[in-house]
Amino acid sequence: MNKPRIRIIMIKANARYFSTSVSSFFNKDLIVTTKPSVKPNFDGAKLGFGTIATDHMVNIDHDGNHGWKSPEIIPFAPIQMHPFSSTLHYGLCCFEGMKAFRGKDGSIRLFRPMENMKRFLGSNLRLAFPEFDPTELLKVIEEFVKIERNWIPNHDAGSLYIRPVAFSMTDVLGVHRAPTTKIMVMACPVGAYFDGKINLSVYENYWRGSPKSAAAYKIGANYAPTVLIGDELAKNGYSQAVWVYNDCFLESGATNLFFVIENAPGKYEIITHPLDGSILPGVIRDSIINLTPDLFPEIKITQKPFSISEFIELHNQNKVKEIFVSGTASVIGEVHSLEIRGKVYPMNYQPGEKLICSTIKKYLLDIQFGVIPHSYSHVVQ
Fold this sequence. Notes:
disordered N terminus; 20 strands; D-amino Acid Aminotransferase, Chain A, domain 1; 2 domains; single chain
């Protein structure tokens, strides 16, 4: 059996700990241990979501008494965890989702990665996890992406999904701050997130978020309670649940939600719920809001509560022209129907119809893959 090849970027007699005014790990101290170089072969495989792991992962440990250890890139392997870990008992974990793209020119690109880093830091702080410099984490992720570059599909086949995750490694029972934590980053080549048409069902028996909840953070506790609901809806042919609060639409499953309304002939408005603490501040959501005026300067974009009763009234008047969801995994997906209180409200898209959301999606993908030069596309040097 071939032993892993060791490549040390910076050698230290002992793992270095940091304790500064802004405590952080640093990319300059990165230690890399790589597996023997074997080019991945997933040609012809149906790339789902989260099924194929790449060869390596990032590991960064924090000790409450000393601070951050040197970041590492190591071969992908299972994690050992103490049975008393507060992650297992109290769900002390959070995560991020981002992608690496192989441009048509062969370049490797990330899409607005600092937005993901800042949001990941916010989720960590919400769980009382230790602070770190998001710029340094991005540098480590770039090194990780370079090592895993052969896992990035061609531009017409998919992308490399990157999953940073932070969790407690504290092995003492009790609901309290975790002095020992870990950040890891892993990746998998992915294709389309949704398989087939997207049909949603409004779920009113569970409030996933409210203005004073933690729904604005990507913490595990926001997602675990939705699994049973999503599983039950899937049995009835629905892709995701639509979460509501006080009769207003929030978001859908793990995606943000948008409505295209025709207020007058040829006068369109895109409505999405505001960032009031009850929804996740999606990077793609923000990009849609910022980029749509480039394509449709005449379309009004409004961030405001949109109620079920308003939707039903406008749908009955044939003024709801499009519904779509957005997220890093799905980018943008048009919704074909919305079920509310036992009644299905279909979206009657015509064959060959040029949807507003499809135009926005193509623009986003062209930026992500470097077809269109844009400041949102971050080239990994």
